[in-house]
Structure formats: structure tokens, C-alpha cells
């Protein structure tokens, strides 16, 4: 007799915020970057807010790369719900950011314009960040 095929349920666990970034910690595309100094979950709304702030400051000049992606679902139960009744619905998606991770990169704009754009993006984030410049950047 054939048994029914068992379906594995994939559980979503929290990913650890311990340690430093093992990948994504060097500039890969642009001349300037915004580096995380603290561990935190960054929501998709915060990433989009930063993207808009950078785009407005650069006035569509240069090129921007977003180096993080919100691929982890966060669930929540409705307010004033009793215990039990299982796991809540997906509330939002977050990106796991560890210290050292490059969040955004910019190329094709002057240093001061890039610094100001990253400063505006920094205001939108719940973590401390650092503006970094590529080692072989000559400024011309």
C-alpha cells in the first residue's frame, strides 16, 4: 500500500544578529558607501525611505546600489489576542544587518554630494552608520 507523501513544513526562524558581517563588508560597485556599525533588523520600508532620500539628493545623477534585501518575514499576532492559536500572520519583511555590512553604494558623483546623500539616508535608519570611500578613489 502506498503511503501519502509527507510535506515538510518549513519554519521561519530568527536569524542571528551575533558577530560581524562575513560577506558584503567591502565596496563592490561604487566609490562611496554607507556601512552599518550596529546589528539590527532593517525593514523594507526603511530601505525604501533611504533609497528615495538618496535619489532626491543625487537628482537622478550617478548610480546607486542597494546591498541589502529584506528576505526574512516577521510575524505578529493582532493586538489584545489571547495566548495560543498558533503563529501570527506576516507583518513585514526585514533584512538582517550585522556590523560591517555595506548598506548602500554610490558612484558617478562628487564626494560632497555623495556624503550629503548618505547623511540623509543615515537619518532614516535605526542604526549608527559610517560613510566610507573607496581606497583608490582619486576625486576626478
From TrEMBL:
Biological role stated in the UniProt entry: Binds 23S rRNA and is also seen to make contacts with the A and possibly P site tRNAs.
Compositional bias per record (Basic residues), positions renumbered to this chain: 1-17
Gene Ontology MF, one: rRNA binding
Gene Ontology BP annotations: translation
Annotated family: Belongs to the universal ribosomal protein uL16 family.
UniProt-listed InterPro entries: Ribosomal_uL16 (IPR047873), Ribosomal_uL16_bact-type (IPR000114), Ribosomal_uL16_dom (IPR016180), Ribosomal_uL16_sf (IPR036920)
Keywords recorded for this protein, A-Z: Ribonucleoprotein, Ribosomal protein, RNA-binding, rRNA-binding, tRNA-binding
Annotated protein name in UniProt: Large ribosomal subunit protein uL16
Listed transmembrane segments: none
Gene name of this polypeptide: rplP
HAMAP family: Ribosomal_uL16
Span list, region Disordered: 1-24
A single GO cellular-component term on record: cytosolic large ribosomal subunit
Subunit description: Part of the 50S ribosomal subunit.
Gene3D superfamilies found in the cross-reference section: Ribosomal protein L10e/L16
